[in-house]
Amino acid sequence: MSEEKRVIRYQPEHSTVDPSDLRMLSRRDFLKYTGMLGAGVAASSSLLMPASSLLAQDDMADAVVVYGATHEMESIDPAVGYTLWSRYVDDNVYDALFRFEGVPPQVVNHLAKGYDVSDDGLEWTFHLEENVKFHDGSTLTASDVKYTFERMLAMGDSPSFLWADTVDPEQIEVVDDVTVKLTLKKQFGPFLFTLPWLYIVNEDLVRANEVDGDWGRAWMRDNDAGSGPFYIEEFDPAVRIVHRWFEDYFKGWPAEHLTGWVYEIHREPATLRQLLENGQVHMTDRLTQIDYELVAASPNIDVIEQVTLSPGMVKMNNQKEPTSNVHFRRAMSYAFDYEAAIQGVLNGNGTRLTSPVPKGFPGQIDISPYDTNLDLARENLEMSGYDPASLELVFNYVGGAPIQQDFGLVLQNSLQHLGISVNVEGLTAGEYIGRLNAPDTAAHFNWIWAASDYPDAEIIFYPQYHSSNWGAWYSCTFYKNERADELIDLARVTVDVDARIEMYKELQQILVDDAADIWVYARHFLMAINSNVQGFNYQPAGMDSSYFYPMVLLQ
Question: What are 239-259's pLDDT values in tens digits?
Fold first, then answer.
């Protein structure tokens, strides 16, 4: 994966919004605005204007960037939220022991200034930065790290899956205020790569707000217990979340920096596009493909494109006839029109996968598994023994997701060349996920793209292709290969990265030989961003989010 971001810029067009609509407030008015809301004063229509109008262009001391979102925040508790949008808040309000940086991503020290690990990978000792302050002014210590692990595992919400099988809360020891030691229940090779997800919370503050043993869940839904570069000043989950810079942040601040940023919700991408063109929103990754083309026409907006680690694929049910037959699956893989999917459906905003693992993962190899080749498709179809005229296959997707539907139509059209009929059926999200629980209820084909939570291919192989995970929606391939299971199990407990990578190479070849799925593309991340916002860096590990600490707003 290239480190250089692709910037698309088109010739300007006339804006659809009058720039005079942009209303400006001074820094004093900004503080008054947020202070009034914090005191519980009822918001008038004038107060509920776009938060971007809080930015005072004539006040160099104030620099507030507005990120345009489409999803409301159900909870800002890092032990609960595990979504594309919750990570925007988590990554800026909280600190983790480590962070992902660079392309390809590396794990770098953050709250942990160093660590020691035993040869067998079971004992980990973390040495913390000193004098790290929480937003309430108290000092972050090793006890907070221990408590964060305990709370995460006890609550058992979505993020806890990263550590549920490996971390025993009884085996976490506070050595001193800046040293914490834990002994894993078993080896887990990618353990270090999971730690950027462990956002450390303020133990004393959370404990003080526990109710009936809820670990502070209710309070943490809309309150801040972090030490990150920004703190929450206003939380209105259906409208906006206002963040202000934390002056005592342990990494310090350069002379030029943001004084705040806003997560502002607008349901319709078309509205976001207009606000972006008008300068009332500074950046968004929530537009349609057409809208990205339109906003790129502005001389003041860049569209930044970055290849992600997230694969998009047609999952084939390996346990239901005829997709249970390897030759039939190979026929499907050769028949699929990859060009139509990537250039037609995605408008080129995808990179063709050359293995089940996207480029950027250590150990990824270019196998070039299947290109569109109808001769080879017909040859494998004949070898499968199935009469195409007798088949009627089903492709399921989440109704209301036009891109997913379009991929189904590409598959439908592709297989018509083989005389095979495919019924493209949209379902509610609940019904779709429910059907993926078992091979007999899952369709022959299902559309999925998977976020890669950390830069180790285990996150691809284990959830999707280990047979023990049947019943989870992302494992709807229902793949069963004893050698693959053996390699995945071995890789998970292998501490040596080079040895693990060799196993990943073999796994890729096995999956391609079995034609387990139709691997289509690595998703492209697109951010439309005002050209006066500098310092944005996309991070392909984890879910899409932005780290606002290094950003600068040019006045």
Answer: 999 999 999 999 999 999 999
